[in-house]
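pinned: reference chain
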Amino acid sequence: MRQRLFLQIYLTMLGIVALFVALVIVGWWLSRDDSSRGEFRSSIGALVAEALPPQGAPPAEMDAVLDRLSEHVAGRISVFGPEGNLLASLGQPLPLPEERTSGWRGGRGYGFGMPLPDGRFVLFRPDRDRSGRRTIGFFAALALLAVVIAVGAYPLSRRLARRLERLQGRVEALGAGDLAARVEVEGKDEIAALARSFNRAAERIQALVAAQRDTLAAASHELRSPLARIRMAVELLAENGDPALRARVERDIEDLDELIEEILLASRLSTLERPTHLERIDLQALCAEEAARVGAAFTGGPATVEGEGRLLARLIRNLLDNAAHHAPDSPALVELEVQGGQALLRVLDRGPGVPEDERERIFEPFYRREGRREDRDDDRGVGLGLSLVRQIARRHGGDARCLAREGGGACFEVSLPIQ
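pinned: its C-alpha coordinates
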Protein backbone atom coordinates (compact mmCIF):
# COMPACT_ATOMS: atom_id res chain seq x y z
CA MET A 1 0.00 0.00 0.00
CA ARG A 2 1.42 3.36 -0.97
CA GLN A 3 2.41 5.49 2.02
CA ARG A 4 1.05 9.01 1.95
CA LEU A 5 3.61 11.77 1.46
CA PHE A 6 2.68 13.75 4.56
CA LEU A 7 3.23 10.64 6.69
CA GLN A 8 6.68 10.19 5.17
CA ILE A 9 7.57 13.82 5.94
CA TYR A 10 6.08 13.63 9.44
CA LEU A 11 7.77 10.35 10.34
CA THR A 12 11.07 11.70 9.05
CA MET A 13 10.76 14.69 11.39
CA LEU A 14 9.92 12.41 14.31
CA GLY A 15 12.98 10.31 13.50
CA ILE A 16 15.14 13.42 13.60
CA VAL A 17 13.68 14.32 17.01
CA ALA A 18 14.35 10.81 18.34
CA LEU A 19 17.92 10.96 17.06
CA PHE A 20 18.39 14.35 18.71
CA VAL A 21 17.20 13.02 22.07
CA ALA A 22 19.47 9.99 21.78
CA LEU A 23 22.48 12.17 20.97
CA VAL A 24 21.72 14.44 23.97
CA ILE A 25 21.65 11.44 26.30
CA VAL A 26 24.86 9.99 24.85
CA GLY A 27 26.56 13.37 25.03
CA TRP A 28 25.47 13.84 28.62
CA TRP A 29 26.83 10.44 29.52
CA LEU A 30 30.16 10.93 27.74
CA SER A 31 30.65 14.46 29.05
CA ARG A 32 31.00 13.30 32.66
CA ASP A 33 34.55 13.88 33.83
CA ASP A 34 35.07 11.19 36.47
CA SER A 35 38.66 12.27 37.21
CA SER A 36 37.71 15.82 38.13
CA ARG A 37 34.83 14.50 40.16
CA GLY A 38 37.22 12.24 42.01
CA GLU A 39 39.41 15.20 42.90
CA PHE A 40 36.36 17.12 43.97
CA ARG A 41 35.22 14.30 46.22
CA SER A 42 38.72 14.04 47.74
CA SER A 43 38.54 17.72 48.60
CA ILE A 44 35.13 17.20 50.11
CA GLY A 45 36.60 14.28 52.05
CA ALA A 46 39.17 16.62 53.62
CA LEU A 47 36.40 18.95 54.72
CA VAL A 48 34.39 16.04 56.10
CA ALA A 49 37.46 14.90 58.06
CA GLU A 50 37.58 18.30 59.72
CA ALA A 51 33.86 18.06 60.61
CA LEU A 52 34.08 14.53 62.01
CA PRO A 53 35.60 13.78 65.37
CA PRO A 54 39.20 12.54 65.25
CA GLN A 55 39.93 8.89 64.82
CA GLY A 56 39.46 7.02 68.10
CA ALA A 57 36.68 9.33 69.37
CA PRO A 58 33.76 7.67 71.18
CA PRO A 59 30.96 6.36 68.89
CA ALA A 60 28.41 8.61 70.61
CA GLU A 61 30.37 11.69 69.52
CA MET A 62 30.51 10.36 65.95
CA ASP A 63 26.74 9.69 65.96
CA ALA A 64 26.06 13.21 67.24
CA VAL A 65 28.04 14.72 64.33
CA LEU A 66 26.19 12.56 61.80
CA ASP A 67 22.86 13.62 63.30
CA ARG A 68 23.80 17.28 62.78
CA LEU A 69 24.78 16.52 59.17
CA SER A 70 21.41 14.88 58.53
CA GLU A 71 19.77 18.29 58.90
CA HIS A 72 21.65 19.48 55.81
CA VAL A 73 22.25 16.28 53.84
CA ALA A 74 19.48 14.09 52.39
CA GLY A 75 20.83 10.58 52.22
CA ARG A 76 22.65 7.78 54.03
CA ILE A 77 26.20 8.12 55.40
CA SER A 78 28.49 5.36 56.62
CA VAL A 79 31.96 5.91 58.11
CA PHE A 80 34.50 3.07 58.01
CA GLY A 81 37.83 2.80 59.74
CA PRO A 82 41.15 2.15 57.98
CA GLU A 83 40.67 -1.60 58.52
CA GLY A 84 37.14 -1.52 56.99
CA ASN A 85 35.25 -1.69 60.25
CA LEU A 86 32.01 0.33 60.53
CA LEU A 87 32.51 3.27 62.87
CA ALA A 88 29.17 5.05 62.54
CA SER A 89 26.20 5.25 60.20
CA LEU A 90 23.40 7.64 59.40
CA GLY A 91 20.50 5.45 58.36
CA GLN A 92 20.98 1.85 57.36
CA PRO A 93 24.70 1.08 56.94
CA LEU A 94 25.99 1.02 53.39
CA PRO A 95 28.07 -1.92 52.12
CA LEU A 96 31.79 -1.25 51.94
CA PRO A 97 33.00 -1.62 48.34
CA GLU A 98 35.94 -3.84 47.53
CA GLU A 99 37.82 -0.90 46.02
CA ARG A 100 37.76 2.29 47.98
CA THR A 101 37.46 4.70 45.08
CA SER A 102 35.82 8.08 44.78
CA GLY A 103 32.99 6.63 42.70
CA TRP A 104 30.98 3.66 43.86
CA ARG A 105 27.93 1.73 42.65
CA GLY A 106 26.36 -0.87 44.80
CA GLY A 107 23.03 -2.11 45.92
CA ARG A 108 20.27 -0.22 44.15
CA GLY A 109 21.98 2.96 43.03
CA TYR A 110 25.01 5.18 42.69
CA GLY A 111 26.92 6.53 45.72
CA PHE A 112 29.99 8.60 46.53
CA GLY A 113 33.12 7.30 48.20
CA MET A 114 35.26 9.88 50.02
CA PRO A 115 38.63 8.75 51.39
CA LEU A 116 39.68 10.83 54.40
CA PRO A 117 43.30 11.90 55.01
CA ASP A 118 43.48 9.85 58.23
CA GLY A 119 42.66 6.60 56.40
CA ARG A 120 38.97 6.47 57.18
CA PHE A 121 36.49 6.05 54.34
CA VAL A 122 33.08 7.75 54.08
CA LEU A 123 30.25 6.48 51.86
CA PHE A 124 27.33 8.69 50.92
CA ARG A 125 24.24 7.71 48.95
CA PRO A 126 21.65 10.44 48.23
CA ASP A 127 17.98 9.75 48.73
CA ARG A 128 16.72 7.80 45.77
CA ASP A 129 13.50 9.80 45.59
CA ARG A 130 15.21 13.13 45.10
CA SER A 131 17.88 11.93 42.71
CA GLY A 132 15.27 9.90 40.85
CA ARG A 133 13.06 12.94 40.54
CA ARG A 134 15.95 14.93 39.07
CA THR A 135 16.67 12.18 36.53
CA ILE A 136 13.00 11.79 35.71
CA GLY A 137 12.69 15.53 35.34
CA PHE A 138 15.58 15.60 32.87
CA PHE A 139 14.08 12.89 30.68
CA ALA A 140 10.60 14.37 31.07
CA ALA A 141 11.94 17.65 29.71
CA LEU A 142 13.40 15.80 26.72
CA ALA A 143 10.11 13.95 26.18
CA LEU A 144 8.17 17.22 26.38
CA LEU A 145 10.54 18.77 23.84
CA ALA A 146 9.98 15.80 21.51
CA VAL A 147 6.20 16.10 21.87
CA VAL A 148 6.26 19.84 21.17
CA ILE A 149 8.37 19.35 18.06
CA ALA A 150 6.17 16.45 16.89
CA VAL A 151 2.99 18.49 17.34
CA GLY A 152 4.51 21.51 15.63
CA ALA A 153 5.86 19.45 12.72
CA TYR A 154 2.48 17.90 11.85
CA PRO A 155 0.83 21.06 10.39
CA LEU A 156 3.97 21.80 8.36
CA SER A 157 4.21 18.33 6.85
CA ARG A 158 0.46 18.18 6.25
CA ARG A 159 0.48 21.56 4.50
CA LEU A 160 3.31 20.50 2.19
CA ALA A 161 1.59 17.22 1.38
CA ARG A 162 -1.79 18.91 0.79
CA ARG A 163 -0.27 21.26 -1.77
CA LEU A 164 1.23 18.30 -3.61
CA GLU A 165 -2.11 16.47 -3.45
CA ARG A 166 -3.85 19.45 -5.06
CA LEU A 167 -1.19 19.48 -7.75
CA GLN A 168 -1.70 15.76 -8.32
CA GLY A 169 -5.46 16.30 -8.66
CA ARG A 170 -4.95 18.97 -11.32
CA VAL A 171 -2.50 16.74 -13.22
CA GLU A 172 -5.06 13.93 -13.23
CA ALA A 173 -7.77 16.34 -14.38
CA LEU A 174 -5.55 17.45 -17.26
CA GLY A 175 -4.87 13.84 -18.19
CA ALA A 176 -8.63 13.15 -18.14
CA GLY A 177 -9.24 15.85 -20.74
CA ASP A 178 -9.87 19.00 -18.67
CA LEU A 179 -7.51 21.26 -20.59
CA ALA A 180 -8.51 24.25 -18.46
CA ALA A 181 -7.11 22.61 -15.29
CA ARG A 182 -4.72 24.93 -13.45
CA VAL A 183 -3.00 24.91 -10.05
CA GLU A 184 -3.16 27.78 -7.58
CA VAL A 185 0.39 28.99 -6.97
CA GLU A 186 1.07 29.28 -3.22
CA GLY A 187 4.29 30.73 -1.84
CA LYS A 188 7.71 31.01 -3.48
CA ASP A 189 9.24 27.62 -2.76
CA GLU A 190 9.98 24.63 -5.01
CA ILE A 191 6.36 23.43 -4.94
CA ALA A 192 5.20 26.85 -6.15
CA ALA A 193 7.78 26.67 -8.96
CA LEU A 194 6.46 23.23 -9.88
CA ALA A 195 2.89 24.60 -9.95
CA ARG A 196 3.95 27.45 -12.25
CA SER A 197 5.69 24.98 -14.57
CA PHE A 198 2.55 22.83 -14.67
CA ASN A 199 0.38 25.84 -15.49
CA ARG A 200 2.69 26.88 -18.34
CA ALA A 201 2.69 23.34 -19.75
CA ALA A 202 -1.11 23.11 -19.46
CA GLU A 203 -1.50 26.43 -21.29
CA ARG A 204 0.73 25.21 -24.13
CA ILE A 205 -1.18 21.93 -24.39
CA GLN A 206 -4.51 23.74 -24.43
CA ALA A 207 -3.28 26.14 -27.10
CA LEU A 208 -1.92 23.30 -29.26
CA VAL A 209 -5.10 21.25 -28.98
CA ALA A 210 -7.24 24.30 -29.74
CA ALA A 211 -5.10 25.14 -32.77
CA GLN A 212 -5.31 21.54 -34.00
CA ARG A 213 -9.06 21.46 -33.51
CA ASP A 214 -9.55 24.81 -35.22
CA THR A 215 -7.34 23.80 -38.14
CA LEU A 216 -9.18 20.51 -38.55
CA ALA A 217 -12.56 22.21 -38.41
CA ALA A 218 -11.49 24.90 -40.87
CA ALA A 219 -10.12 22.33 -43.32
CA SER A 220 -13.29 20.27 -43.09
CA HIS A 221 -15.48 23.29 -43.74
CA GLU A 222 -13.29 24.37 -46.62
CA LEU A 223 -13.82 20.98 -48.24
CA ARG A 224 -17.57 21.47 -48.22
CA SER A 225 -17.42 24.27 -50.80
CA PRO A 226 -15.77 22.26 -53.59
CA LEU A 227 -18.06 19.37 -52.75
CA ALA A 228 -21.05 21.62 -53.28
CA ARG A 229 -19.67 22.80 -56.61
CA ILE A 230 -19.00 19.21 -57.72
CA ARG A 231 -22.55 18.25 -56.82
CA MET A 232 -23.92 21.13 -58.85
CA ALA A 233 -21.75 20.23 -61.83
CA VAL A 234 -22.92 16.62 -61.72
CA GLU A 235 -26.53 17.78 -61.77
CA LEU A 236 -25.86 20.04 -64.76
CA LEU A 237 -24.18 17.18 -66.65
CA ALA A 238 -26.91 14.70 -65.78
CA GLU A 239 -28.53 14.88 -69.18
CA ASN A 240 -25.40 14.46 -71.32
CA GLY A 241 -23.00 12.75 -68.92
CA ASP A 242 -22.20 9.09 -68.46
CA PRO A 243 -24.63 7.61 -65.92
CA ALA A 244 -22.00 5.25 -64.52
CA LEU A 245 -19.52 8.09 -64.11
CA ARG A 246 -22.16 10.22 -62.51
CA ALA A 247 -23.02 7.46 -60.07
CA ARG A 248 -19.40 7.02 -59.13
CA VAL A 249 -18.88 10.76 -58.64
CA GLU A 250 -21.98 10.95 -56.49
CA ARG A 251 -20.77 8.03 -54.41
CA ASP A 252 -17.38 9.68 -53.94
CA ILE A 253 -19.09 12.86 -52.89
CA GLU A 254 -21.11 10.97 -50.32
CA ASP A 255 -17.95 9.33 -49.02
CA LEU A 256 -16.20 12.67 -48.71
CA ASP A 257 -19.19 14.24 -47.03
CA GLU A 258 -19.41 11.34 -44.55
CA LEU A 259 -15.67 11.49 -43.91
CA ILE A 260 -15.84 15.19 -43.12
CA GLU A 261 -18.69 14.57 -40.70
CA GLU A 262 -16.71 11.80 -39.02
CA ILE A 263 -13.63 14.03 -38.75
CA LEU A 264 -15.66 16.75 -37.07
CA LEU A 265 -17.24 14.23 -34.70
CA ALA A 266 -13.86 12.69 -33.87
CA SER A 267 -12.52 16.16 -33.16
CA ARG A 268 -15.34 16.83 -30.69
CA LEU A 269 -14.83 13.46 -29.00
CA SER A 270 -11.05 13.77 -28.77
CA THR A 271 -11.25 15.71 -25.49
CA LEU A 272 -12.59 12.58 -23.71
CA GLU A 273 -15.04 14.74 -21.78
CA ARG A 274 -18.15 13.18 -20.31
CA PRO A 275 -21.47 14.17 -21.93
CA THR A 276 -22.83 17.36 -20.46
CA HIS A 277 -26.52 16.66 -21.24
CA LEU A 278 -27.34 13.10 -20.28
CA GLU A 279 -30.65 11.46 -21.10
CA ARG A 280 -32.14 8.08 -20.40
CA ILE A 281 -31.85 5.96 -23.53
CA ASP A 282 -33.96 2.88 -24.18
CA LEU A 283 -31.18 0.85 -25.77
CA GLN A 284 -33.55 -1.92 -26.82
CA ALA A 285 -35.73 0.44 -28.85
CA LEU A 286 -32.69 2.18 -30.34
CA CYS A 287 -31.13 -1.14 -31.46
CA ALA A 288 -34.42 -2.37 -32.91
CA GLU A 289 -34.86 0.87 -34.85
CA GLU A 290 -31.36 0.86 -36.33
CA ALA A 291 -31.55 -2.87 -37.15
CA ALA A 292 -34.87 -2.39 -38.95
CA ARG A 293 -33.37 0.46 -40.98
CA VAL A 294 -30.89 -1.89 -42.71
CA GLY A 295 -32.92 -5.11 -42.50
CA ALA A 296 -30.82 -6.74 -39.77
CA ALA A 297 -32.20 -9.20 -37.23
CA PHE A 298 -32.46 -8.14 -33.59
CA THR A 299 -32.82 -10.07 -30.35
CA GLY A 300 -32.55 -8.78 -26.81
CA GLY A 301 -34.29 -7.64 -23.66
CA PRO A 302 -34.81 -4.18 -22.18
CA ALA A 303 -31.82 -2.09 -21.13
CA THR A 304 -31.63 1.57 -20.15
CA VAL A 305 -28.43 3.62 -20.24
CA GLU A 306 -27.54 7.26 -19.70
CA GLY A 307 -25.92 9.16 -22.52
CA GLU A 308 -26.44 10.99 -25.76
CA GLY A 309 -28.95 9.29 -28.01
CA ARG A 310 -27.50 10.79 -31.19
CA LEU A 311 -24.05 9.39 -30.47
CA LEU A 312 -25.32 5.95 -29.44
CA ALA A 313 -27.38 5.75 -32.62
CA ARG A 314 -24.25 6.64 -34.57
CA LEU A 315 -22.37 3.84 -32.78
CA ILE A 316 -24.94 1.22 -33.80
CA ARG A 317 -25.18 2.58 -37.33
CA ASN A 318 -21.42 2.42 -37.82
CA LEU A 319 -21.33 -1.20 -36.66
CA LEU A 320 -24.18 -2.15 -38.97
CA ASP A 321 -22.58 -0.34 -41.93
CA ASN A 322 -19.32 -2.16 -41.23
CA ALA A 323 -21.14 -5.52 -41.16
CA ALA A 324 -22.99 -4.72 -44.39
CA HIS A 325 -19.74 -3.78 -46.10
CA HIS A 326 -17.86 -6.95 -45.15
CA ALA A 327 -20.80 -9.38 -45.40
CA PRO A 328 -23.12 -7.96 -48.08
CA ASP A 329 -24.75 -11.32 -48.84
CA SER A 330 -25.97 -12.08 -45.33
CA PRO A 331 -27.89 -9.81 -42.96
CA ALA A 332 -26.23 -8.82 -39.73
CA LEU A 333 -27.49 -9.90 -36.32
CA VAL A 334 -27.86 -7.46 -33.42
CA GLU A 335 -27.94 -8.89 -29.90
CA LEU A 336 -28.54 -7.05 -26.61
CA GLU A 337 -28.26 -8.49 -23.12
CA VAL A 338 -27.69 -7.25 -19.58
CA GLN A 339 -24.86 -8.87 -17.65
CA GLY A 340 -23.26 -7.77 -14.38
CA GLY A 341 -24.46 -4.18 -14.48
CA GLN A 342 -23.42 -3.81 -18.12
CA ALA A 343 -25.47 -3.71 -21.30
CA LEU A 344 -23.67 -5.85 -23.91
CA LEU A 345 -24.47 -4.86 -27.48
CA ARG A 346 -23.19 -7.23 -30.17
CA VAL A 347 -23.27 -6.88 -33.95
CA LEU A 348 -22.42 -10.16 -35.70
CA ASP A 349 -21.76 -10.87 -39.36
CA ARG A 350 -20.73 -13.79 -41.55
CA GLY A 351 -17.94 -11.98 -43.35
CA PRO A 352 -14.32 -13.08 -43.62
CA GLY A 353 -13.67 -12.14 -39.99
CA VAL A 354 -10.73 -10.26 -38.53
CA PRO A 355 -7.36 -11.88 -37.78
CA GLU A 356 -6.55 -11.98 -34.08
CA ASP A 357 -3.48 -9.74 -34.44
CA GLU A 358 -5.61 -7.01 -36.07
CA ARG A 359 -8.60 -6.96 -33.70
CA GLU A 360 -7.18 -3.97 -31.84
CA ARG A 361 -5.67 -2.14 -34.78
CA ILE A 362 -8.96 -1.93 -36.70
CA PHE A 363 -10.11 0.61 -34.09
CA GLU A 364 -7.28 2.97 -35.07
CA PRO A 365 -8.28 5.96 -37.23
CA PHE A 366 -7.82 5.36 -40.97
CA TYR A 367 -6.38 1.91 -40.44
CA ARG A 368 -6.09 -0.07 -43.67
CA ARG A 369 -5.50 -3.79 -43.60
CA GLU A 370 -2.57 -5.16 -45.56
CA GLY A 371 -3.30 -6.00 -49.18
CA ARG A 372 -6.04 -3.37 -49.51
CA ARG A 373 -5.78 -0.67 -52.15
CA GLU A 374 -7.27 2.78 -51.84
CA ASP A 375 -8.54 2.86 -55.44
CA ARG A 376 -10.58 -0.34 -55.17
CA ASP A 377 -14.35 0.02 -55.04
CA ASP A 378 -14.71 -2.90 -52.62
CA ASP A 379 -12.56 -1.16 -50.00
CA ARG A 380 -14.87 1.76 -49.26
CA GLY A 381 -15.58 2.58 -45.67
CA VAL A 382 -12.04 2.31 -44.31
CA GLY A 383 -11.64 5.41 -42.14
CA LEU A 384 -13.03 6.55 -38.80
CA GLY A 385 -16.10 4.32 -38.45
CA LEU A 386 -14.79 1.79 -35.92
CA SER A 387 -12.59 4.40 -34.24
CA LEU A 388 -15.71 6.45 -33.55
CA VAL A 389 -17.45 3.36 -32.17
CA ARG A 390 -14.77 2.98 -29.50
CA GLN A 391 -14.62 6.71 -28.77
CA ILE A 392 -18.38 6.91 -28.27
CA ALA A 393 -18.39 3.79 -26.07
CA ARG A 394 -15.61 5.13 -23.85
CA ARG A 395 -17.26 8.54 -23.69
CA HIS A 396 -20.24 6.76 -22.10
CA GLY A 397 -18.10 4.81 -19.63
CA GLY A 398 -17.89 1.61 -21.67
CA ASP A 399 -15.64 0.06 -24.32
CA ALA A 400 -15.69 -1.77 -27.64
CA ARG A 401 -13.82 -4.83 -28.83
CA CYS A 402 -13.71 -7.25 -31.74
CA LEU A 403 -14.17 -11.00 -31.26
CA ALA A 404 -14.36 -14.03 -33.49
CA ARG A 405 -17.87 -15.36 -34.22
CA GLU A 406 -18.48 -19.03 -33.78
CA GLY A 407 -18.96 -20.60 -37.20
CA GLY A 408 -17.10 -17.80 -39.00
CA GLY A 409 -17.40 -14.06 -39.22
CA ALA A 410 -16.84 -11.23 -36.77
CA CYS A 411 -18.51 -10.12 -33.57
CA PHE A 412 -18.22 -6.52 -32.41
CA GLU A 413 -19.16 -6.17 -28.75
CA VAL A 414 -19.86 -2.87 -26.99
CA SER A 415 -20.28 -2.72 -23.21
CA LEU A 416 -22.17 0.19 -21.62
CA PRO A 417 -23.07 0.74 -17.94
CA ILE A 418 -26.81 0.39 -17.42
CA GLN A 419 -28.95 2.86 -15.50
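why pinned: Residues 190-268 form a domain with the Helix Hairpins fold (CATH 1.10.287.130). The first strand starts at residue 75 and ends at 80.
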